[in-house]
Amino acid sequence: MSNSTTKKVRIALVGLRFGGAFAPIYHAHPDVEHVAICDTNEELLNQYGDKYGFERRYTNLDDILKSDEYDAVHLVPYMESFNIYGEEASVEWHMEDGPLTVFKTAVQQGERGRKSDVTLVKAPSRPDLLPEELAYHITNQAILDPNNPHQSVLQGNGHHGSHPHLVHEFLRSIVEERKPAIDAVTAANWTAAGICAHESAMQGGKEVIIPSFE
């Protein structure tokens, strides 16, 4: 694939079940030349592409990598929905075209189970740090799905406004030829904690050492 950073960035996004929340942000970013979408589910691919106006469509990642038409590929192979691990929690991962794994909440009997106090922390979404085209995804909201409050924001503004910031930092790192703030090592360290927590939970709380990727 081309490594050129002298012109606008050409992006391919793979995996639309969760990645669909990112595609409109890339499309709106002033540093992007064009965006391709990819999903092995051709029906989903075409429905999404038709709805949001994406002409470049693929069902195979290899075709993207061999094309030399893209500067970066954003892989989004899953979407997750989870609560705090423990005897009163549940975890679910939905793998793209893979098995659906659901860990049911344990039924509390008597004093069984641990109680947890939860403190909610609201972080500012800071649209002022974004290009105007991306800030729009934070400052303008719409009800996408009344049955899913998590999606009651403008398409593209997931996780309370973090998606536009992640996309912007990733694209600017390509244009400026530098490491992004969340680089591969940082991402691996953050992800490893969740994987090890899962392994611990599946073994009844057994200690699992989190590896370091430094």
UniProtKB/TrEMBL annotation:
Q: Which InterPro entries match?
A: Gfo/Idh/MocA-like_OxRdtase_N, Gfo/Idh/MocA_Oxidoreductases, NAD(P)-bd_dom_sf
Outline the extent of the Gfo/Idh/MocA-like oxidoreductase N-terminal domain. 9-74
Cross-referenced Gene3D superfamilies = Dihydrodipicolinate Reductase, domain 2, NAD(P)-binding Rossmann-like Domain
Q: Which domain of life is it from?
A: Bacteria
Classification via Pfam families: GFO_IDH_MocA
The name of this protein is: Gfo/Idh/MocA-like oxidoreductase N-terminal domain-containing protein
